[in-house]
Design a protein that fits this description.
By secondary structure, this protein is mostly beta strands. The protein has a domain of 105 residues: Jelly Rolls, CATH 2.60.120.10.
Length: 177
């Protein structure tokens, strides 16, 4: 999905002035997201690795998936694995990924699609590439559920790119590819 651009950046909406009585929080640390592999060898960079969870809550992880350029037959994913007590929000930039879970949910994510999975009291799921070659990349944000919601039933929702509002590009009103 191409980036959204404007002819004149001075025309962008401005952030409103904050109330001076609000407390300012200093930056505690700057970290570099270490690279690693998940599942069958899918490359990820974990942005919050090593950061104390008390400083992150409600965030748990933010993973950059890929960017990786697969040759034919190389795509790797994360086969069946458990989750409990949090939600994941996945956004695909390139490639195709299929979600399956123990609740019977399935979803095919492509460029610009979002997946919202609530693990809550627990489920087992897999995320597997649905392409034979090409670039795969996206990101996934993990959100801690409040204690009162951790034992609710799991849920799953696909949000297709076509249903997500988008700002106008230079070619005002140009449809999505």
């Amino acid at each position: 999905m191409p980036a959204i651009t404007v002819d004149d950046i001075t025309t962008l909406a401005r952030v409103p002035t904050l109330d001076a009585s609000l407390a300012h929080r200093p930056v505690k640390a700057v970290t570099v997201a270490p690279g690693g592999f998940e599942g069958e060898g899918f490359p990820v960079r974990r942005a919050f690795a090593g950061v104390d969870l008390a400083d992150l809550d409600p965030f748990v992880h933010m993973d950059q998936m890929g960017e990786v350029e697969y040759a034919p037959g190389e795509p790797k994913g994360t086969p069946w694995h458990p989750h409990r007590g949090f939600e994941t929000v996945t956004y695909m930039l390139d490639g195709r990924m299929q979600h399956r879970d123990s609740g019977g949910n399935t979803g095919d994510l492509g460029p610009g699609d979002v997946q919202w999975m609530t693990a809550a009291r627990g489920l087992v799921h897999s995320e597997m590439p649905q392409q034979t070659a090409g670039r795969m990349r996206g990101f996934q944000l993990w959100l801690n559920l409040p204690a009162a919601d951790k034992m609710r039933p799991p849920a799953y929702r696909d949000i297709p790119a076509r249903s997500i509002p988008e700002g106008l590009s230079r070619t005002r009103g140009a449809p999505r590819p």
